[in-house]
Specification:
- Keywords: ATP-binding, Nucleotide-binding, Transport.
- GO terms for molecular function: ATP binding.
- Residues 280-290 have a biased composition (Polar residues).
- This protein is of the alpha/beta class.
- The protein has eleven helices and ten strands.
- It is 43% helix and 21% strand.
- Strands 6-7-8-3-9-10 form a six-stranded mixed beta sheet, sandwiched between helices. A four-stranded antiparallel beta sheet has the order 2-1-4-5, with helices on one face.
- Helix 3 (101-109) packs parallel to helix 6 (160-172) and helix 5 (125-145) packs across helix 6.
- It is globular.
- The N and C termini lie far apart (83 Å).
- 34% of the residues are buried.
- Bound molecules: adenosine-5'-diphosphate and magnesium ion.
- Residues 49-50, 91 line the site of magnesium ion.
Length: 290
């Protein structure tokens, strides 16, 4: 008799498709993230990774498909997705530049505080109590990411790597069960990248599942239990780091080498054929001119 319990899905994307006019940026993507997992999402620029995140978080309403969090289908509204338990960071840092580090984290907490508008305006005892608790939790999170000593600094004065960490703290402030990270180490030096790796492990150890987009393959393969590779909006390969690392289609996708059956390969072949015939006629014209 087996005693292992089946991993329970935190996130389930089913057949998610996102079209912009004639462009299909994400095509029928299925992806599951289970409790306790760190899952990586890789793929060349323009593959549809950020668009997929936007579909998961309600920023975009998918053309087709559903997104479920812990078994419940999510309405495609960012605030409802956040209060359900999904938090994210952005590929381009989105902090309030003129707020302090602490204030930025407090902003992330507002979905979790129950105090109403009047209570806040009148600054009654309930509000002050909630505010004190929020403040304490925000400081705890700053401690966790190693920025407590800069709580009063304006966020715009932080070096880039620390701004990225602060974004993670702000996302954690909504007390998520799933954290989505869009290129968390972009622009970081190798030490900062390694520290971010440790931070993501620590987040996972606190019971938060993680889905991370990143171009740094060493980071991805060290960190992730599973990796999915998107190419031209389609999920090409999914598996353990070893499986994905050894898959020649993934290598080909990054190097831009077309392979048989690749998404868009037929179109690419047509374009190449057209270009080749165009080039030939140019050459022959030049030949005549000589
Ligand atoms: N709001 C939008 N309107 C039109 N096209 C978009 C929009 N967002 C993304 N795209 C297109 O979708 C494709 C995928 O982009 P993106 O998801 O940003 O890729 P990645 O994050 O993998 O680099 C690109 O061709 C991009 O131009
Ligand atoms: Mg992107």
């Amino acid at each position: 008799m087996t005693t292992t319990t089946a991993p329970s899905p935190v996130l389930e994307a089913n057949g998610v498709t996102m079209r912009f006019g004639g462009l299909t940026a994400v095509r029928s993507v299925d992806l599951t993230v289970n409790s306790g997992e760190i899952v990586g999402l890789i793929g060349p620029n323009g593959a549809g990774k950020t668009t997929f995140f936007n579909c998961l978080t309600g920023l975009y309403v998918p053309t087709e498909g559903t997104v479920s969090y812990k078994g419940t289908v999510l309405p495609p509204k960012p605030h409802l997705v956040t209060s359900a338990g999904i938090a994210r960071t952005f590929q381009n840092i989105r902090l309030f530049a003129n707020m302090t580090v602490l204030e930025n984290v407090l902003v992330g907490r507002h979905t979790r505080t129950k105090e109403g508008l009047w209570s806040a305006l009148l600054r009654g005892p309930g509000f002050r109590k909630a505010e004190a608790a929020s403040h304490e939790r925000a400081m705890e999170l700053l401690e966790f990411i190693g920025l407590a000593h800069k709580a009063d600094h304006l966020s715009r004065n932080l070096p880039y790597g620390e701004q990225r960490k602060l974004e993670i703290a702000r996302a954690l402030a909504s007390e998520p069960g799933l954290l989505l990270l869009d290129e968390p180490t972009a622009g970081m030096n190798p030490q900062e990248t390694r520290a971010t790796e440790e931070l993501v492990f620590a987040i996972r150890d606190q019971g938060i599942a993680v889905l991370v987009i990143e171009h740094d393959m060493r980071f991805i393969f060290n960190l992730c239990d599973r990796v999915a590779c998107l190419v031209q909006g389609e999920k090409l390969v999914e598996g353990t780091s070893e499986v994905v690392q050894g898959d020649e289609r993934v290598v080909a996708a990054y190097l831009g080498t077309p392979f048989e059956g690749a998404p868009g390969a037929d179109e690419l072949a047509e374009v190449e054929a057209a270009e080749a015939s165009g080039a030939q006629s140019t050459t022959s014209t030049e030949g005549k001119a000589q």
